[in-house]
Amino acid sequence: MWWGEDMDxxxxxxxxxxxxxxAVADGTGEYTMESRTYPFLDTLVxxxxxxxxxxxxxxxxxxxxxxxxxxxxxxxxxxxxxEALSFRLCNLRGQARSRTARxxxxxxxxxxxxxxxxxxxxxx
Length: 124
Hints:
The protein is mostly beta strands. The protein is 10% helix and 35% strand. The chain is built from 2 helices and 6 strands, in the order ββββαββα. The protein has helices spanning 54-57, 104-112; strands at residues 12-18, 23-24, 31-36, 45-50, 66-75, 78-90. The mean pLDDT is 79.
């Protein structure tokens, strides 16, 4: 959301960066962005979707590594503000599956720091 900004006739832009100031998905077709004003709001709302794949992660996050994330807001190509994001970008693309490795959902429980048991998956 573009709180407190007059965005009439303005071209908004968002850009995802790593904590090392490397742009992520800054090429054509690597992200989508739609902006609109809802009838019940007077603030522009943008939906920014970044396609995280081999092409967008290469050079931004090393294989097996993780980086903090930041979102930059631009108004007519001028930087308005930077927002530190609460998640990290991890690059595990191409990782081979190991018979001794924990399933991904168990790793997610460890990363989240939760001890709450997750339900067992059911087959349809």
